[in-house]
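Fold these two proteins, one after the other.
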Amino acid sequence: MTTTTPSSVGSGLDRVEGLDKVTGRARYAFEYSPRDLAYAVPVQASVARGEIRSVDVDAVLKRPGVIAAIWYGNAPRLASGDGGELAVLQSPRVAYRGQYIGAVVAETLHDAREAAGLVRVEYAAERHDVELRADHPGLYRPEVVNPNFPADVEQGDPDAALAAAPIVVDAVYSTPAEHQNPMEPHATIAAWDGDGLTLHDSTQGASAVRDTVAALFGMPPANVRVISPHVGGGFGSKGTPHPHLVLAALAAKQVGRPVKLAVTRQQMFAVTGYRTPTIQRVRLGADAGGRLTAIVHEAFEQSSTIKEFAEQTAVPTRMMYAAPARRTTHRLVRLDVPTPSWMRAPGETPGMFALESAMDELAIACGLDPVELRIRNEPDTDPETGLPFSSRNLVACLREGARRFGWAGRDPAPGVRRRGRQLVGTGVAASTYPAYRGSSQASARAEPDGRFTVRIAAADIGTGARTVLTQIAADALRAPVDRVRVEIGDSALPTAALAGGSMGTASWGTAVVRACEALLKELDRRDGDLPADGVEASADTTEEIRGQQRFARHAFGAQFAEVGVDADTGETRVLRLLGVFAAGRIVNPKTARSQFIGGMTMGLSMALLEESVMDREFGDYLNHDFAQYHIAACADVRDIEALWVEEDDPHLNPMGSKGIGEIGIVGTAAAIANAVHHATGVRIRDLPIRLDKLVR
C-alpha cells in the first residue's frame, strides 16, 4: 500500500522559526559576543565637501578603556583602490556630511562613544551642492539604470503623436528622498583569525558580502565567512555592504581583536542608503476614446560624487500600457550627498506613482472611469520588447478589485461627498514588478534517521524564507515538512542570490527543488541502501537560468483606496485599502498576505508621511530619527485587505511563483493620491500629501 504526502506548497504553514523569534532565541548580528570583544564607534564628517587637514586624537588615547583611534593616516590599506563608497578611511577627501572619517575602539560601547566625541578634526571645507533640480547644469545621461536597463528608450515619434493627440496630459510629479529604516539597525561583528575573516552581519545576501569583502581585502572568498541567520528587515538597505561593515573589519584588523559596530538610527540616514528623490515629467497623448497614442516619461534623480547609482524610475512605463509612440529617459546628477541605493521596489515605486497619477488625470480628461481607461490600454505583448508575457492578469486584478471594493456606480465628480467633517474619495492605481531569478546553489541530504537537511546561503529578512523553502523542499522530496530542516544565512553554505528584487524564493526555490530531485534520483539508484553517514546531492541553477525561454515576466496588481480628508484641517486618513494581485502560484498564503499588506502599509507611509528633508546649508538630512521621520504602522489603516487571483504560469520556475515582497508598495501611493483628488478636487503631484498642500 502506498501513501501520498499532502502538498505543503499552497498551505498556510506557520513560520518554522516562529518560537525562536518570540522567545528571543533567534540571534541577530549584534547579539553575538566573541571572546575578547571590543567596540567601535565611528567618527563622522561634519562638512559636506572638502578635505581633512588634521586629526587630533591625543585626548582620545588618554581616555580609560580606549584601545585605538583610527583614521585615514593610520588605517590598514584596502586592496581595492576604486575610491568608491567602501574605500573607508583610505583618503582625506570628504564626499558628504556624515561620511565615516575615523573610529574609536574601546573596551565598552560607552567608552568608545564618549571618546569618539573627543576626536578633533580640522577641515579645508569646500562649497557643496546637495539640491536636485530638473535644470541642474550637471545632469547627464547614465549608460544604464539599475540593474542594467538602457537609460533611454524611444519608439515611433512621440513628439508628433503628442502634437496630434486630441487629449494630452502634461504634468510634473516629484517624490522626496526616503530612508528604509528597518526595525533592526545595521550591525557587524568582525573577527580575524590569521588570514581568515568572520563577519556576523545583518545582510540580505551573505554570499554577496563575502565576495565583496574578499575583493576589498585582497583575499580568496573562501577566507571570508559571513553569518546572518536572522535579519530584522532590510527593504533593500541591506542588499549590499555599506561602510560600517568595512570599518568594523578595518578596526578588528588594526587592534587584533573582534570588534562590534552598530549603526545608530541617526547614522543610518547618512551611511546605509536611501531612495533617491525624483522629479518626473509625464506626458500622455490619447484619442477621444481614451486609447493612448503617446507616452513620454522623463525622470531626474541624484547620486553621489563617489559612486553612480541610477534608479530605473521610468522603466516600468516601458511595458505597462500600449501606445505606438513612446519615450522614457533618465537624467542623473552627482551631488555632495550619500549614495542612494535600493529601497523596496526601486524604480517601480516612484515611477508608478507618476505614471498612475497621470493615468488618473487622463481618465478625467477623457471622461472615462479610471479602471476602464487602464483596461482599454492593455497591451497584447510587451510594448518595448515585443516579447509575449509569460502571464499578465492586470485586467483580472482590476475587475476583481473593482467588484470587491464596490467601485461600480462611483460618482467621478471630485469634492462632493461628505461624511461628517470628512470629504471622502476613492482612487485606483495599477502595480507591477518584474519576476526575476538569480543563479543559486543548494544541497539536500538524506540523514540516517529518515530526516532531510537542505542547505543554501539564502537570507530571511522577515519575509518567511525559511518557511517557504521548507515547504518547497518537502514537496520536492515528497516528505512531510516536519522531516525537513532548512539551513540558511551563512556564506559557508552553497552560494545563493541575495534577497532583493523579489527574486529570493524563485531563485533559491529553483536550486532547492533541483537539489532535492537529484537526491531522490541518488536514493532510487541506491534502492534504499543508505550509508551510516547519509547521502547528499547538490545543484547549481546557472545553466538552467541562462537557457530559459525569453518571455516578459512580471507580476501585476491593482490597488484601491478610500480616504477621508478633514474639510477644515486637511488631515488625511486612509479609510480602506484593497490590493488584488496576480503573482503566480502562492507558496504560503499566510506569509504572502503579510508581505502584501506590509508593502501596502509602506506605500501609505510614502503617500502621507515619509520625507527626508535636506538642509541645503549644511548638506545633511534634518529629520534623522523616528521622532521626525514618520512612518505608517498598522494602526494607520485598520481596513486593509490583500488577495490574489489564481494564476498558472509554467514559464517561471519549478514552483510557478512570482516574487511578492515588493509589488505591494507599488501603486499604493498613487491610489491614495488619486483618492485624495477625488475627495477634495486638489491634485497632489509632489509627495508626501501634507496638510499645507490641501488647505488653500
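Now the second one:
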Amino acid sequence: MARWERAEATTPRPDPAPWDDPAPGPDADAPLVLAAEGPHGPVIHAANVAAMQAGAVRGGRVTDARALCPDLQVIPADLAGDAAALERLVLWARRWCPWSAVDGADGMVLDTTGSDHLWGGEAAMLADMETRLEALGQSVRIALAPTHGAAWALARYGDAREICGGPALKARVAMLPVAALRLDGTTLLTLRRLGLKRAGDLMAIPRATLERRFGRDGKALATPLRRLDQMTGALPEPVVSAAPPRRFRVVRRLPEPVMDPQSLLEEPMTDLCADLAQAGCGLRGLRLELYRTDGTATRLESGCARANRDAAHLIRLLSRHFESLDAGFGFDTLSLEALRVEDMAAAQVRLDGGIDSELAVATLIDRLSARLGGQAVQMPDPRASHLPERAEGWAPALRGGRADLLAPGGLGGGGMVAPARDRPVRLLQVPERIEVLYAVPEGPPVRFKWRRKPYLIRRHQGPERIAPEWWRARPGTRLRDYYKVEVAEGARYWLFREGMAGDGRGDEPDWFLHGMFA
C-alpha cells in the first residue's frame, strides 16, 4: 500500500493594477504562502520553507503571519484547480497498479498488492514513482506499508521515502504522534490534555478504557481505537478505487485509401453522438485522427462553447481543417474521440419550431472560433472583486470563458445580470490621467482636461468610495472616490480621485478617467 502527498501547490499570481508597473514574480527563496478564504478572513492553505521559518502556520490567519513577517508574499490558492489536478494525477498513477484513489485534499493512495515485482521490487517501484512525479514538478513524500492508515501516517510524519512492514510495523507506528491517527481536532486536543502524545501511548491503554472514553467500534468512524486497528491491520480498510471516466471513441478502418475523408465522417460521427446521447452526455471538444498509408498521423481538434452532440454541427466545425490537409498517398483509418465530456440533459424543442436563443449563441461561438481561432472569440469572465478592473475580465469562450452563461438560465433574460451599481458600458483597460479643476480638494470636479481637450462639467453624481483590497494590495495603495459626470456636450464619463489630501500615502491626490457611459 503506497501513499504520498504533494508538499506544495502553485497558483498563478493575480494581475497587478493596470496602471502600476507589473510586480516581479514571486522569489522562490522569499517567504510565500497560498491563502484561502476562511470564516474570519484569509487563512494560510500552504507555505514554503522560508515562510514556515518566519512563523507562518498552516491554517493560521494571513494577517497574523504578515505581522510576524512584513515581507510575506501571498498568492490566492486555487482549491478547485488543485482538486481537479489531483483527480487527473490519480488516474495517471494507475500505471503502477490498477487501484488508486484520492486521499484527502493533498494526497492519493494506491493499493500496490502484487504489483511491486513488475517494477523490480518495492524500493525500485518507489524510486520510479518519485522520479516520475518530480519530472512533473511535484515535490512528494512517499511511504509504503501493509495498511492504508500506516502508509498515511508514515507519508506525513515519517521519512520522505519510507518502507515499513511485517513485525516492525507496530513498533514503528508507535513512535508517531497521535496526529498520525487521522483524528479530528477535538479528539486530538482531548488526547493531548490527557498526556497522550504518541500512538504507542494509546496502545498501552486497555481497550475497554478507550471504548468507554471515546466510543465503541461501529458508533463512530474516527475513534482512536478504530484508527489504531486500521493502522495495525486488525481492522480492514480497503481502497475504494473510482472507475476511470468512460472514453467515447469511434474508429473506422477503410477498405481502401481515400484522399478526402470528409464525406466519410457522417456515419462515425452519428455513432459517436448516439453513444453520448445514450450516456446522457455531450462533448466540449472533438478530436479527429487521420492515419495515412505511410504511417503518418494527422490530428485535428475543435471545441464547443457548451456541451453538444449534434453530428451535423460537429462535422461543420471540422470542415475548415480539410482545406489544407495533406493526404499523401491516402488515408486508410480514422478515429473520432470526444474530449471534455459533460452531462447534457435532453431539452424540449420550442412549440413554435424556433431555435433556442442560447443554443444559437453557442453555435455561433463555435463557428466563429473554428474560423477565426480560439483566442479571437471571448466572453465576459466576472470575478469576485469590488475593484472595477479586477471584477470585469475577458477569457476565450471555448477555454475558460464563462461558457456557463450559455447554460440554461445563464442568459435567460437575453443578457448578463446587471451589477448592483451602474458601471460604464466601456471601461478603459488602463485608467488615463487627467487634469482636474475643483473648488475644494475633497469636493467634486468642475472642469477636467483629457487628451488635451478641456471639458466643462454640468452635472455630477458621487462620490462612490472604493477602498483597496487590503489582503492583496501593495503597501501605500490609496483609496478611490468615483464620480459620474456629464459634460456640456452631453457625454458622460466615470472619473475617480486616487487618494485623499493628508492621508499620509503620497502627495496631492491624482485624478483618472476610467470609463465612458452611453
